[in-house]
Amino acid sequence: MKKLLVCLAVLAVTLAFDLDDAEPEEIAPYTSYELRVYESAKWACHDEMRKRPKMYTSFMKLFGYITGENEKGQTINMTAPVTMMEEPLDGDANRYQMCFYIPAAHQLEPPKPTDPNVYIEVRPRLTVAARTFGGWVSKMREWVTRKDDLERDLKAAGEQGVDYTRFYGAGYDSPMKYKNRRNEVWFVVD
Description:
Layout: H1 2-16, E1 20-21, E2 25-29, E3 34-38, E4 41-50, H2 55-66, E5 79-80, E6 82-88, E7 94-101, E8 118-123, E9 126-133, H3 140-157, E10 167-171, E11 183-188
Parallel strand pairs: 1-5
Antiparallel strand pairs: 2-3, 3-9, 4-7, 4-8, 6-7, 6-10, 9-11, 10-11
InterPro entries: Reg_factor_effector_dom_sf, SOUL_heme-bd
Organism: Penaeus vannamei (Whiteleg shrimp)
Family: Belongs to the HEBP family.
């Protein structure tokens, strides 16, 4: 029941607003991946430090932020992509960070989150090696499989300056979109 309510709420937000995307500049398309540049931008983020992420928890924290849980009580347009980053920590845990891109209308002064676990991150200009794929991604291991495939191809191609210690998963579609879904995995390139 809880997940149904979440899906309905996401649908309402998605239908009420046009998605405002983080727009990259494609600098080098290859057969199985492309290199892109994302300019510096602000993102609303939530972190989890654990062995396995609970993506639902992070999504709901960020969804709260864009539906008014911020100092101005403002509703903020849903954006794409939603990124999920996995970074190994010392020991058995990983850092899982989920972020929503802040739309252009709020980039200069995004409202401050009222939830202390949600924060605004200023991402520097990023060059990424990205691979796009379709379908549903519901578990972290599915992202990891795609990440492993991209890593293998980048190494085979001799790509230099790739940070393989962490990766991003990027989702572009509403949960209500069933066909022609767009997902990506990214590695940051120096």
